[in-house]
Amino acid sequence: MLDTQPNSKTVQISDLITIRDLNMIYRGRGSETVALKNANLTVAEGEFISLIGPSGCGKTTLLRIMADLIQATSGSITIAGKSPRQARLDREYGYVFQAPALLEWRSVLKNVILPLEIMGFGKEERETRAKKLLEMVGLKQFHRQYPWQLSGGMQQRVSIARALAFDPSLLLMDEPFGALDEITREAMNLELLRIWEETKKTIVFVTHSIPEAVFLSSRIVVMTPRPGKIEKIIPVDLPYPRNTDTRESKAFFDLATEVREALRDVH
Amino acid sequence: MKRFLPILIVLVVLILLGYPLALLFGLPLARRDMKDLRKWEKETISLSDGVALAGQSDGSNTVFTYPRAIVENDDSRTLFVNDSSLIYKAERPEERVDGERADFHFESDHGLVVQDGVLLSDGDYVREQNLIRFRQTPPRNAQLRQYPDYFVQDSERGEVVLGAAPETGARVWTDSYTIYARPACGDTLMACFFSLPQHPVPFPHWIAARVVPFFQKFPLTDERNIVRSTLYTSLGTLSSLALGGAVGIILAVLFVMFRPLERALLPWTIASQTIPIIALVPVLLLVLGNFGITIQTSLLPTAIIGAYICFFPVVVSTVKGLRAIDPLILDLMKSYAAKPLEIFWKVRFPAAVPFFFTGLKLGTAAALVGALVAETESNNRRGLGFQILGQVQSGNVADVWILLIISGLLGVGLVAFVGLLQRLFAPWERV
Ligand SMILES: Nc1ncnc2c1ncn2[C@@H]1O[C@H](COP(=O)(O)OP(=O)(O)OP(=O)(O)O)[C@@H](O)[C@H]1O
Ligand SMILES: [Mg+2]
């Protein structure tokens, strides 16, 4: 089931993320949490991978290791052939956190501009890019507002626009649509798919929603808690571009059922 | 309008509270005035009224008392025994009581001897005609007097002591004497309250009535003019805030950037705040005075004193602001591979701005106190501090209250001003 070839010495150029025997143990005072145990995963360039699993199974942990926000206890991981640290320094990825993490002293527009400022984009390009993205997430007329003037879902959309702003080839998204209503969520799903297809990005996407995972992903990684393990990887053989009709197809329901059952086994 | 409603309510409550407070503090004084005989009106009774009798001798008594009477002790002809008048004439005290001599000469060879207003008993001295020899040497600088026939022991109670007991049945009387008629302040407690010369808490409308004259007391050309004093003090406080704020930010940034520096300096910073300002001000003024910087010529001493007290809340608050960053935002910056300086300018610094202003607001009241104290401790005629001191010394209670209100309003105004700055520099904050 796992798509790894541990003995192969050749590194395929199309493999963007390679994770080998990754372990993550959080050591607290007198307690140890095994957040990831022997995780193996390869993500090809241009893939849309979803991580799904019960709360506390290590999805965020895995994403944070990829982003070099924390370091794994053991095992190896490469991003675009580099160490996560180098990938981070090279600004290979955009990260959407589980919470919006907006800077409260910056207007919505300025928040989206933040990475562009840091990465040295020109003043005009910053504005045009940020405004375009805000329009895309449906917040064009809110660009002057401060984050607290926005609803939770709107804030999360700003943070998505921000992650997209500098057009990273890899997107790490931690439950980006968790705070959205069903309708907005579906619209955002379509939008994300459009961007993904257009820009040929690679996306690692954490979600708790089975339909969302099935609708978006090319593969779904099902994880189990205590200790956090990759239980199963389900390929989603639904043709792209997907649209609202996809959601109503039989194949869609079958896949959803498969994921649901895999998750049920987990419990 | 809605924003001023709370202030309005507080104002009305304070004004309404002023009346019971004025009564609470004034009525005890009124009662005291009412009971204090010294403050009663006096009325002179003459012989024709027929009440001048002090008493009748039983052959041995020497003390006679007039009911509710005052016997003026400088009148040598007030007292009679039957038809003969007694002599009440204070002798010139002996030249000097040097604490060593025990012998004194008086003009007459009989009478009562008084030391410092207290009648001495025969046992205290031995009389040899004009010579009085004390058994114990009177203390240095004591006042010795001899009264030939009688001594007014208690003029208010009308108590006189005769040098010798008159013969049995002799009448002791005066041709005129004064009695206590009624309290000078009035017949009722309220009347006495209203006639108090100084009310510790005046009625609010009395204070209000003083406002215009108070403002007109000095012309604008005089540096003691109240508007000028207020401006001067606000200028002092504002320069304190500027200096204290700058020092506060710099220290806070240094503390956050270099932990060891914080560990080294923080105890000193705290210790600096335990020195009472009132003790510090004269020293500071003295030191600065040596460099020719005085309050008369420069705002700098006031600014330094005010800054000295107001920088501390700024440091504490700003350090907290620089540190209290959502770890997720630090992760975000890390994901952008942002440099430490970028993290500082784009995250820590803006996050600390509201904290800085909160600290500055806390420091404002302290800086105002600093400025006021500095003004009172220098012989400077400018500023509210000088005004308060002056009015307290001259006992203008209503004016002191006006100054208190002005200082309070100034404090509120300055805090509001800092709040305005905060709104300007931290526009993202919800209000
Ligand atoms: N900083 C940390 N220190 C200690 N333990 C941690 C830390 N972060 C996560 N854990 C533990 O690691 C495990 C996995 O956490 P993680 O946040 O990766 O879960 P998750 O799959 O993202 O859950 P959710 O769906 O609720 O977001 C949990 O048991 C959690 O208690
Ligand atoms: Mg998570």
List the helices and strands and how they pair.
The complex is a heterodimer of chains A (267) and B (431).
Chain A: E1 15-27, E2 32-44, E3 48-52, H1 59-66, E4 74-79, H2 84-89, E5 93-96, H3 108-118, H4 123-136, H5 152-165, E6 170-174, H6 182-199, E7 202-206, H7 210-216, E8 219-224, E9 229-235, H8 244-248, H9 250-266
Parallel strand pairs in A: 3-7, 3-8, 5-6, 6-7
Antiparallel strand pairs in A: 1-2, 1-4, 8-9
Chain B: H1 5-35, E1 40-46, E2 53-56, E3 63-65, E4 69-70, E5 79-81, E6 84-85, E7 103-105, E8 112-115, E9 118-119, E10 125-128, E11 131-134, E12 144-147, E13 150-154, E14 159-162, E15 171-174, E16 176-183, H2 189-194, H3 204-216, H4 226-257, H5 259-274, H6 277-290, H7 300-323, H8 327-335, H9 340-377, H10 384-394, H11 397-425
Antiparallel strand pairs in B: 1-16, 2-15, 3-14, 4-16, 5-6, 5-15, 7-11, 8-9, 8-12, 10-11, 13-14
Helix pairs in contact in B: 3-11, 4-5, 4-7, 4-9, 4-11, 6-9, 7-9, 9-10, 9-11, 10-11
Adenosine-5'-triphosphate binds at residues 26, 28, 33, 35, 55-61, 98, 228 of chain A.
In the predicted model, the low-confidence regions of chain B spanning at least 5 consecutive residues are none
Which strand order spans the largest sheet of chain A, edge to edge or round the barrel?
A: 5-6-7-3-8-9
Number of domains of chain B: 2
What general outline of chain A do the C-alpha atoms trace? globular
Number of continuous helical runs of chain B:
11
**Strand segment count of chain A:** 9
Residues in helix, % of chain B: 40-55%
CATH homologous superfamily caption of the domain at 1-92 and 170-177 and 205-267 in chain A: P-loop containing nucleotide triphosphate hydrolases
Largest sheet of chain B: 4 strands, antiparallel
